[in-house]
Write a structure and sequence with these properties.
- The chain is mostly helical.
């Protein structure tokens, strides 16, 4: 037992070293740095911020698509980045640009072990469901729920890109009946929740997002983000119940009873009715993905 613990500690330390190197090899993307710098200046106008974001037309398309998505529920179509900034506000734009930039910077080419389109689809749908749940339940931090949903599985992408041989080993172990979390801990000394959270800390991303990513499978363990972490967990669960996409990492996922209690669901029937009531909206949301992938 003691030898196993030492071996796991060594694997954890090795993984942490890789993550520190990632922050050196892949620093915060230039666009994100520029946007954050502008937002630190109280005199920055929507036009100035819009010009900075417009340097990356791919980012513009994604922000406009998000702003016009069914779950954002804006009454008027958003057709320019400047209007999106005025409607959503600087804080929301900062969070969206942050999440999209970090997802892009950790993305790898698809292979037989990871389909990037499936990961992006899962992350985006989870994010939009999470925001809708937060809005429906009257949770003020609905923007945090959206960003947390986008980033919740960042660790999977990080393992695939920067620890690829371990990623392959994890996937092969899962084929023998092991769970992804068990396999991740066996080969990396950490699971993808901790890996994503650790990298976000190294990147100096606000603490609430680090905690949401770390506890999206066990929200009751969270200290400061129990409600939003529970929302992300529930949204993650909903994607599986609705059989949206073919993202294998969450196959067989079960809803944490404590998360359901935190969100004040009384029984399984109430949970099932809530999920069914959102099915049409989620299907409509999937139509927006063709502009984002």
């Amino acid at each position: 037992m003691y030898t196993i613990e030492i071996d796991q500690n060594q694997k954890r330390e090795r993984t942490q070293l890789v993550l520190k190197k990632v922050t050196t090899l892949s620093p915060i993307p230039r666009l994100l740095s520029e946007v954050l710098e502008l937002l630190r200046d109280m005199n920055t106008s929507p036009q100035q911020l819009g010009r900075a974001i417009a340097k990356d037309q791919g980012m513009v398309v994604k922000i406009l698509t998000i702003a016009n998505s069914p779950f954002y529920g804006l009454s008027k179509r958003v057709s320019s980045i400047e209007y999106a900034i005025m409607i959503l506000g600087f804080n929301e734009i900062r969070n969206i640009v942050t999440a999209l930039s970090l997802m892009e910077s950790t993305k790898n080419k698809s292979d037989q072990y990871m389909n990037q389109k499936e990961l992006w689809t899962h992350s985006y749908v989870t994010a939009t469901i999470a925001k809708k749940i937060a809005d429906d339940l009257g949770v003020l931090q609905s923007g945090d729920a959206f960003i947390g949903g986008l980033l919740h599985d960042l660790g999977i992408s990080v393992i695939h890109r920067y620890m690829h041989s371990d990623f392959v080993s994890v996937c092969e172990a899962v084929k023998t009946g092991m769970s992804y979390n068990e396999a991740e801990n066996m080969y990396l000394g950490m699971d993808h929740q901790n890996i994503g959270s650790t990298l976000l800390k190294y990147w100096n991303i606000p603490e609430q997002f680090c905690e949401i990513v770390k506890y999206h499978h066990t929200p009751n363990h969270s200290s400061n983000t129990k409600i939003v972490s529970s929302i992300i967990h529930f949204a993650d669960y909903m994607t599986q119940k609705m059989e949206l996409g073919s993202f294998s990492w969450d196959t067989g996922m079960e809803l944490d009873p404590e998360a359901a209690s935190i969100l004040q669901f009384r029984d399984p029937d109430e949970i099932n009715k809530f999920i069914e009531s959102h099915h049409g909206l989620v299907q409509a949301q999937l139509e927006t993905l063709k502009h984002l992938i």
